[in-house]
Amino acid sequence: MDYMVSDETQAAMAIKIKWDLGLRGGLLIANPIPEEYSLDKDYIDGIIKRALKESEKNNVKGKNITPFLLGRIKDLTGGESLKANIELVRNNACVGAKIAVELNKLMRR
């Protein structure tokens, strides 16, 4: 099931409720890249398509596809995609930490 939460407190509550109910399985929290670091959708989609075509042309498959694509996308964007990915990871860590703090508060009650 898909649900949307508006902040870290709601995310923590969802996690705690899931645990309290003994529900099995994972819980995925999707967190978008901060707007100021995002690349234009049409621009990055075109770069990704180009990199995918190059991977097919060069017969890149299996475990080699991800590093190939990330490298080509980085090169084709002049490093901007790498900067965006670093900011996405940084933001995910911050949001994860905030969720952990809120979850800790809930678990102490």
Structure characterization notes:
- With 109 residues, the chain is an all-alpha fold.
- Helix 1 crosses helix 4 (80-107) and helix 2 crosses helix 3.
- The model has no long low-confidence stretch (mean pLDDT 95).
- The two termini are 27 Å apart.
- The chain is 64% helix and 0% strand.
- It has four helices and no strands.
- The protein has helices at 8-20, 41-57, 65-76, 80-107.
Distance between the termini: 27 Å
Name the helicity range. Answer: 55-70%
Please give the number of β-strands: 0
The backbone outline, from C-alpha atoms, is elongated
State which percent range the strand residues make up. under 5%
Count of DSSP-assigned helices: 4
Rg is 18 Å
Task: Detail the topology: elements first, then pairings.
Layout lengths: L7 H13 L20 H17 L7 H12 L3 H28 L2
Could you give a short description of this structure?
The chain has helices spanning 8-20, 41-57, 65-76, 80-107. It has 109 residues and is mainly alpha-helical.
Summary keywords:
109 residues, mainly alpha
